[in-house]
Amino acid sequence: MSGGLALMEIFSSFGYAQFVTIPGLGTQGSAGSGSQRELLVGGYLQGNLQYQVNKRWDVMAGVQWRKFGSFWHKENQVTAGD
What we know:
By secondary structure, this protein is an all-beta fold. It has one domain (2-77). It has no helices and five strands.
């Protein structure tokens, strides 16, 4: 069992186009795009199991769990994220 600090660098590119049509009033729309870079800090836990079948063969299984903070990309009041 092990654990520790984990860092994740995010390069995000986000674009959108949205339109609404109201009968009698016409269509209104907005669009935008942009890019963003951020470093998220988190942690991880890891566990491994190993069994020796015979002198020549081992069987190993492992699992890893990671947790980071949330990331939200916002352009012109429109948000995308987890």
